[in-house]
Write a structure and sequence with these properties.
Protein name: Nuclease HARBI1
Oligomer: single chain
Organism: Exocentrus adspersus
Largest sheet: none
Number of helices: 5
Shape: elongated
Strand content: under 5%
């Protein structure tokens, strides 16, 4: 085989590809800044805040961060609930409420 035709000159590189697969291209990750998150919070806080603190209600910032984590993790409610220390049903309601608020600010 001609060296021009050989894509993989190094046998170790070939073994690494066989064991681990082709290396992935990392796309630019969107990570909002604190300033952006707080700006978004000021836009939707009045819509997602609970009227009282009964039953240890979840703060608006935690609701927003849970919603953003939901977007980032492709909708894995169980991981969000575990991370935030809440029930899956609570995480579901919060994300639904925050999502609607986020959508209403963009329209």
């Amino acid at each position: 085989m001609d060296s021009d035709d050989d894509i993989y000159n190094d046998e170790l590189e070939m073994l690494d590809i066989i064991e681990h697969g082709f290396p992935r291209q990392r796309n630019a990750v969107f990570a909002p800044t604190k300033k952006t998150v707080f700006h978004l919070l000021t836009l939707i806080e009045h819509e997602i805040e609970f009227p009282s603190d009964m039953n240890d209600s979840i703060s608006p910032i935690n609701q927003l961060l849970s919603c953003l984590r939901f977007y980032a993790t492709a909708g894995h409610l169980s991981s969000i609930a575990d991370f935030e220390g809440m029930a899956i049903s609570s995480a579901s309601r919060i994300i639904k409420k925050s999502f609607r608020s986020n959508c209403s600010t963009t329209s």
